């Protein structure tokens, strides 16, 4: 079958493309403004991608078109599909019908940590010899790709709450019918499609309704918003993690990153790794508990996590020049920004942290979280914010940071200021959910040239 994927460059849709290719279909795609790592992944898979959207991209008359949720009516390719009467579907629906049917689906949902937790879970299952399939909104270091069909019964999917397509406004995750569901956390986000937190909770309730009575829901005990979702109705056994819940992480005093895993008050395993931050301990707890429902013992899961190598764009070290280390991180919500910086501060208490932020998400551009932004950046010694295309006054919102912050809407000015400020021992954390104009390479080149 000839499958054409419109909007192929998104993290989810690129994964769909890999799965379709692995299933034996002839795959093409289209997008605009592609950037690594997904552009690289598609190229390495030999998938032809048209630059931009056009009716001409459909001249080969594909048997099915998979439309990404970034496309809407008025898009040239969408209009061509409708006018020509070509069969079309959404990415989540394609995944459900062509990959997930008959498999043990383990879905990871929540505002933060979905990609990392799903990557940990997939690696635990792989380490245990279960050969899982997966589709993750990032590239786990242990696998090198964001999606694969797998040979075993298990399939791990990052369960995004964003809407499905212009013709299906339900959250993506309602298509997946998981047997094991992780609910990591829940905050207001995606202000472009949700009016408030309650609207997201309603979608999460719809997800909970799809989990069978013989399934399992793993949920964060420290999240009142999740408790409220479960109170709407739950027909599945639940296992809480965090705080004084059934699954707990007990940090070691002599090693900042290592911790013991306790279940029902008893030690069941030890994680020795180099991942930083309390948020990653919670991600790991969720992954260990979810893997248990697939038959992996806690001790085996903890041993697997010792070999977990992280995820691209999640505190990924991009390089070091002259004693200055540059990291790439996907953080784009105040909570994620704060946890990223606090985790780095805990693991590297002696060096300076230079935080570089592009408030690029729709929610950030609209200014929904502007009043929380300054506090989320407080752990940094210096802050650099790219202010292009914002609908709010960044100078006013970040005034509390004083002269620790530099704000500019010019990329050249931003790069030059960071290079000038950096000194040996510093850690530069670049946070954005986009390509950020290739700033990581520009910083490393600038540091090398000075």
Automatic annotation (TrEMBL):
A molecular-function term among this protein's GO annotations: UDP-N-acetylmuramate-L-alanyl-gamma-D-glutamyl-meso-2,6-diaminoheptanedioate ligase activity
Start and end residues of each Mur ligase N-terminal catalytic domain: 3-98
Catalytic activity: UDP-N-acetyl-alpha-D-muramate + L-alanyl-gamma-D-glutamyl-meso-2,6-diaminopimelate + ATP = UDP-N-acetyl-alpha-D-muramoyl-L-alanyl-gamma-D-glutamyl-meso-2,6-diaminopimelate + ADP + phosphate + H(+)
Residue ranges annotated for the Mur ligase C-terminal domain, each copy included: 313-434
Superkingdom of origin: Bacteria
The UniProt record lists the keyword Nucleotide-binding: yes
Binding site residues for ATP: 110-116
Cofactor(s) needed: Mg(2+)
Domain (Mur ligase central): residue spans on this chain: 108-291
InterPro entries named among the record's database cross-references: Mpl, Mur-like_cat_sf, Mur_ligase_C, Mur_ligase_C_dom_sf, Mur_ligase_cen, Mur_ligase_N, MurCDEF_pg_biosynth
Pathway named in the protein's UniProt entry: Cell wall biogenesis; peptidoglycan recycling
Physiological role: Reutilizes the intact tripeptide L-alanyl-gamma-D-glutamyl-meso-diaminopimelate by linking it to UDP-N-acetylmuramate.
Similarity comment: Belongs to the MurCDEF family. Mpl subfamily.
Protein name in UniProt: UDP-N-acetylmuramate--L-alanyl-gamma-D-glutamyl-meso-2,6-diaminoheptandioate ligase
Species: Spectribacter acetivorans
Lineage of source species: Bacteria, Pseudomonadati, Pseudomonadota, Gammaproteobacteria, Salinisphaerales
């Amino acid at each position: 079958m000839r499958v054409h994927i419109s909007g192929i460059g998104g993290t989810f849709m690129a994964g769909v493309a890999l799965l379709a290719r692995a299933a034996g279909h002839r795959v093409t795609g289209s997008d605009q403004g592609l950037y690594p790592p997904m552009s690289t992944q598609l190229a390495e898979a030999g998938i032809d991608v048209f630059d931009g959207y056009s009716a001409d991209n459909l001249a080969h008359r594909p048997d099915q078109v998979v439309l990404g949720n970034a496309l809407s009516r008025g898009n040239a390719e969408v209009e061509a599909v409708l006018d020509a009467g070509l069969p079309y579907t959404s990415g989540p629906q394609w995944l459900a019908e062509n990959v997930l049917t008959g498999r043990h689906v383990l879905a990871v949902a929540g505002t933060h940590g979905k990609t990392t937790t799903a990557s940990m879970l997939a690696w635990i299952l792989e380490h245990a010899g279960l050969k899982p399939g997966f589709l993750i909104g990032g590239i786990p270091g242990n696998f090198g790709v964001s999606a694969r069909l797998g040979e075993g019964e298990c399939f791990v999917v990052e369960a995004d709450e964003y809407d499905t397509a212009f013709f299906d406004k339900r959250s993506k995750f309602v298509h997946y019918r998981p047997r094991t569901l992780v609910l990591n956390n829940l905050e207001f986000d995606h202000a472009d499609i949700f009016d408030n937190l309650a609207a997201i909770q309603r979608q999460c309730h719809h997800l909970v309704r799809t989990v069978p009575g013989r399934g399992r829901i793993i949920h964060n005990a420290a999240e009142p918003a999740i408790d409220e979702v479960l109170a709407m109705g739950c027909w599945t056994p639940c296992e809480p993690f965090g705080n004084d819940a059934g699954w707990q992480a007990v940090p070691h005093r002599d090693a900042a990153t290592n911790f013991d895993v306790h279940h029902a008050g008893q030690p069941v395993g030890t994680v020795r790794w180099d991942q930083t931050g309390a948020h990653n301990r919670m991600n790991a707890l969720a992954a260990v508990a979810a893997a248990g429902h697939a038959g992996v013992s806690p001790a085996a899961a903890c041993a697997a996590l010792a070999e977990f190598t992280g995820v691209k764009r999640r505190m990924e070290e991009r390089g070091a020049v002259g004693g200055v280390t540059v990291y790439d991180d996907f953080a784009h919500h105040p909570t994620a920004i704060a946890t990223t910086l606090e985790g780095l501060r805990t693991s590297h208490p002696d060096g300076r942290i230079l935080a570089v932020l592009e408030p690029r998400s729709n929610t950030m551009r609209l200014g929904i979280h502007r009043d929380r932004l300054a506090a989320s950046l407080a752990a940094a010694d210096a802050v650099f914010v790219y202010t292009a295309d914002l609908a709010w006054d960044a100078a006013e919102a970040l005034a509390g940071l004083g002269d620790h912050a530099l704000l500019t809407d010019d990329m050249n000015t931003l790069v030059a200021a960071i290079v000038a400020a950096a000194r040996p021992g510093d850690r530069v954390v670049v946070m954005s959910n986009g390509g950020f104009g290739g700033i990581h390479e520009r910083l490393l080149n600038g540091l090398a040239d000075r």
